[in-house]
Amino acid sequence: MTTARPAETLARTFTAIEADGTYTLDARPAGDGRLLAPLDRPLLGWTRKPHGWCRDEACLPVHRAAAAETPEGVDVAAFAELVGRLAVIDEDERAVAFAEGAGPFAAGGLTAERAPDFTLDGVSLADFRGRKVAIVFWASWCGCRYDLPAWQERHEALERHGFTVLSVALDRAAEDARPWIAEAHAGRPSPHPALVDAEGLVAERYNVINVPTVVWVDEQGRIARPQDTQTATDLFRSMNGLDSARSLEALRRWVVDDDAGLDAEQVREHLRVPTMQERRARAHARLAVWLARRGRAQAARRHLDAAAALAPHDIAIRRGLMPLTGEDPFGDAYFALRTELEDAGIPLYRPLTPQE
């Protein structure tokens, strides 16, 4: 293992940005794009020991850790990839954002056999084990906001069959989503759990690239139907071509008759696992959100452009962050985005069942 240098030689600090908050990271730029952290301090929850870097019961052995170590410190981005993370560094802003990566140490991996758990607003997906759950991704910047009362009605109609609608708003400002949630819940004796994914954690774990998107999770916590574009009303059928009646019929068959319409092999086939480019785009987006919230609009735009270049199809990033940069998600910027994607042959909506 590389001999550790004293931590004092790495005096510069960066802000580390995670989905669950920020903290100070002791590190310094190496001058070549790398960011070096002290070898003798914990990094990303891992601690250096004689036999490798360890976190709880998991350990990254010495011979693998060596790929990220130098006599001056540990390469933050290289180490992040070794432990299932991705890092995007902005030296000028003295910030580094992390997103979920791949590999055996990655958290919340998306597989048909295990729907990634999450906790928002004190509510966890695991709380509903033993029930069928439809995770409904929506946002106030999407016309699907008008569907939320209809999803509430579906929740009420099927709740006695062991079913729950769990809505997740992708708004980066919770106050944008709250009025629509309040309207859907108004006067309802059994309001569905309605959460706000302000930091993009759940969208990241479920690889949600646009809304509305719905994921079905069965009683055992397995994905019964992967990312599917579904609507609960026909308000925008002329634009999206989606039939809400077919969506409701399929939902009833699953909840009441236990027929999800897909077998396990088809679920695996249709499940959209994020690519490395999509993961890196989300790290750029996380950094852009942090910068925009601090009034660093120009720096935020750089990272939004980087995210768009990596994942041009990710409308949840490109349209969802328009309010943070002063653009109207229902205005010219959105229609320009639609035209760009249509010209490139990139679908805006991705229903699993072909629409007539």
Automatic annotation (TrEMBL):
GO molecular function: antioxidant activity; oxidoreductase activity
Family matches, as PROSITE patterns: THIOREDOXIN_2
Lineage per the UniProt record: Bacteria, Bacillati, Actinomycetota, Actinomycetes, Streptosporangiales
Alphabetized Pfam families for the sequence: AhpC-TSA
Domain of life: Bacteria
Entry coiled-coil feature ranges: none
Thioredoxin domain residues: 109-247
Gene3D superfamilies assigned: Glutaredoxin
Name the record gives this protein: Peroxiredoxin
The species this protein was found in: Thermomonospora echinospora
